[in-house]
């Protein structure tokens, strides 16, 4: 099995070098990295060879490698060509969580970065606060929300971190209903959602007066744009206030959406999500809108848990960890055995 994989990788490297030679691009494949979802070939350009010539061959390289698309990017002083694997396997969330040590408070696990290192996002950091996840159907954004919430629950006691799960379509977060960290059952009715968000803003104001910020509260929303459209001002107004002032009171928004456009959600709300995570999108323009900046390459992602993290003007490619149904049930059951119990002392 390992020899077969190595032979395929060598064949792909040969195809890259042959295509470059045919187009008179002076470069060789100098090595590579295998990740759960992709293979990254390191390219050594000859002195004086323009990177633009290589970038102009993206479509031809994808055709030569028999993949939908490739991504060509600088990597320090070198260049990488990334192609999706035809034998990709999901990155197990249970395995990732078991491998982590000394996880900071309120840090959510995302998956593995391009170098195979665990990638964590500390929500309590001033540079993070709120996170917007965008991508088409099949990009894995709902699964990523579950991954982040399960990792937060795994490494933070309910007395230190609480959750409010908002799931208008009643299909993404209901499996997390038994987590002892929940302040209430998962919400799907817009009236109940509006009322809960209003109570959260009241709690935020009390905390502001008292100088309090604990326990941390994560408000997870699946399909934010749809919620804003169906809930109207009763939902949008408290959400905007939480986005603007929630961080100092220890309240963080984690929202996923297919439609991050200005037509679907206001610029005021989007501008208060300093961290964007972008999965597969349909076009470079969609990628720019979702990420809040151009040049992230999100339009070249292959879906299935491939994402770009955009924070403070930097981009980090990663493969999201995934919890199968069996893993999800096992992790939730383990956490639900916490002595606090779900919803106990969970009033806002």
Task: Write a compact overview of the structure shown.
This protein is α/β, with parallel strands linked by helices and 348 residues long. 35% of the residues lie in helices and 24% in strands.
Structural class label:
alpha/beta
Strand content: 15-25%
Termini Cα gap: 55 Å
Overall outline: elongated
State the major sheet: 10 strands, mixed
The parts where pLDDT drops under 50 for at least 5 residues are 339-346
Write down the overall mean pLDDT.
Answer: 90
How many helical elements? 11
Helix percentage: 25-40%
How would you spell out the order of helices and strands?
HEEHHEEEHEEEHEHEHHEHEHEEH
Say how many strands there are.
Answer: 14
What is the CA-based Rg, rounded?
A: 22 Å
Question: Could you explain the architecture of this structure?
Answer:
Helix content is 35%, strand content 24%. The chain is of the alpha/beta class and 348 residues long. Strands 5, 6, 7, 8, 9, 10, 11, 12, 13 and 14 form a 10-stranded mixed sheet that branches. The longest helix has 21 residues, at 2-22. The protein is elongated, with a radius of gyration of 22 Å. Residues 339-346 have low confidence and may be disordered.
List key phrases describing it.
348 residues, alpha/beta, four-stranded antiparallel β-sheet, elongated, disordered C terminus
